[in-house]
Amino acid sequence: MKTPVAVLTPSAQRLPGVDALKALGCVLIVWHHLAFYGPMSDVVHTAAPGLMNWLYDYARMAVQVFLVVGGFLAASVLAPEGVAVFRQPGRLILRRYQRLALPLFVALLVTTLVAALVRPWLPHPSVPDMPTVWQVLAHVFLLQDIVGQEALSAGIWYVAIDFQLFVMTVLLFTLTSHAHRRWPGLPAQAGVWAVLGLAAASLGVFNRHAALDMTGLYFFGAYALGMLAWWASHSPRPARWLLAIAVLGVLALALDFRGRLLVALVVALSLVALQRSRPVRWLQAPWLLQLGQMSYSVFLIHFAVLLGVNAVVSQFWPTQLVANALGMLAAFGLSLLAGQALYLGVESRRRPARVSPGSGVSVP
Questions:
Q1: What DSSP designation does 79 have?
Q2: Which pLDDT belongs to residue 279?
Q3: Cα 156 to Cα 363: distance, rounded to the nearest angstrom
Q4: Residue 356 placed within a domain
Q5: Is residue 363 one of the residues assigned to a domain?
Q6: How many CA atoms does the CB half-sphere of 51 hold within 13 Å?
Q7: pLDDT value at position 281?
Q8: Rounded Cα gap, residues 364 and 353, in angstroms
Q9: pLDDT of residue 359 exceeding 70
Q10: How many CB atoms are closer than 10 A to CB 17?
């Protein structure tokens, strides 16, 4: 897959390893869904149960990559030195919604059309029903899980979570900035202390209750680790930031060991190491940078591809192992191509001509 030079943004050159991590997370999420949805994985499971079970149980932990990277990029835009640099929080939130929503709506439209086409000849629970008006409205406002509406595509719960986390961070820094102006005795970096406090509450309380996983409170701890990783990467005195990462992570793991949290901690420390060390050449490979940059589009559109390929393979080769294994590989490759088309046709057109280091969407 050749990479057009125009696709590569400054984030690929200024933030080493970010796009590579997003690319890795994207691949794992797509394969997790390949193992989770559709009859092809059921056939392949009979020959490779260990691999399918691993993809089913562990590949989904790649979500932590996007949580941490999302916080890392948010800090780079909102408070690169721990102090808010934005003036219009409402406009910033609206711009974030637009960047997330437009490619999402295009992908959901494609997925709905594909589901309607395959529904008559793919009787499988992974095929979503025809959407209702309430479902559509819930998706428009990114509230489908909170209001109890069935998702129209796989994994789009994360889009809503990403938006919630961004809004929460903007509000934290807005409130602490106003408080600092009103009471100058407060430290200028009061926003950092607010982030640390909410991160501790998330890791110690909210993240231990599965019923809260439809809210950003459940995931804010990993997001905050990414923010701390940014500040550690760009501070002349990184020790205090690294200590904060270590204390938050170790105490949370000691309180309640969670594999997903361990992954988030490793990703945060890896981001710091990548920013503060000499560039690793293979992490700058053009194909890897492109895959990382279009990872959001791949994530949004891949379920439609999975439905289509599952329908074709199950119709003509319902039990043949080789055909179903090749079908899974084909679905992966076609997902990348479809994601590239969505990225070039929709997502990249919403970005400003001059892109800041943290302006990319970090969603699986």
A1: -
A2: 76
A3: 9
A4: no
A5: no
A6: 11
A7: 81
A8: 24
A9: no
A10: 21
Phi then psi for 356, rounded to 5 degrees?
A: -80, 160
* Residue found under tokens 């709506």: 105
Rounded alpha-carbon distances, angstroms, from residue 20 to 24, 171, 267: 6, 30, 12
pTM exceeding the 0.85 threshold for the entire prediction:
yes
Tokens 């986390």, residue located? 165
For residue 189, the SS3 value is coil
Report the pLDDT value the prediction gives residue 353, as an integer from 0 to 100.
40
Boundaries of domain holding 251: 5-350
Given a cut of 80, whether residue 355 has pLDDT beyond it is no
Q: How many CA atoms lie within 13 A of 78 on its CB side?
A: 32
Output the CA torsion 156→160→161→164 (10° steps): 170
Q: How many CB atoms lie within 10 A of CB 200?
A: 17
* Burial call 92-102: b when 16+ CB within 10 Å, e when fewer: bbeebbebbbe
pLDDT band at 283 (very low <50, low <70, confident <90, very high): confident
Are 38 and 313 in contact by the 8 Å Cβ rule? The answer is no
230 conformational bin, left if phi > 0, alpha if psi -120 to 50, beta if neither = alpha
Q: Which residues contact 4 (CB under 8 A, 6 or more apart)?
A: none
Contact criterion met (CB below 8 Å) for 222 and 61: no
Is 361 among the domain residues? no
**Neighbour count for residue 149 (Cβ, 10 Å):** 17
Comparing CA positions, the residue from 67, 16, 35, 60 lying closest to residue 266 is 67
DSSP 302-361: HHHHHHHHHHHHHHH-SS-HHHHHHHHHHHHHHHHHHHHHHIIIIIGGGS-SS--TT-S-
Give Cα separations from 103 to 77, 109, 216, 349, 361 (angstroms): 21, 10, 21, 10, 11
Residue 217: closest CA among 198, 197, 239? 198
Closest CA to 135 of 119, 157, 151, 158: 151
In the chain, how many domains are there? Answer: 1
Specify if 197 maps to a domain: yes
| CB neighbour list of residue 228: distance below 8 Å, 6 or more residues apart | 71, 195, 241, 244, 245, 248, 268
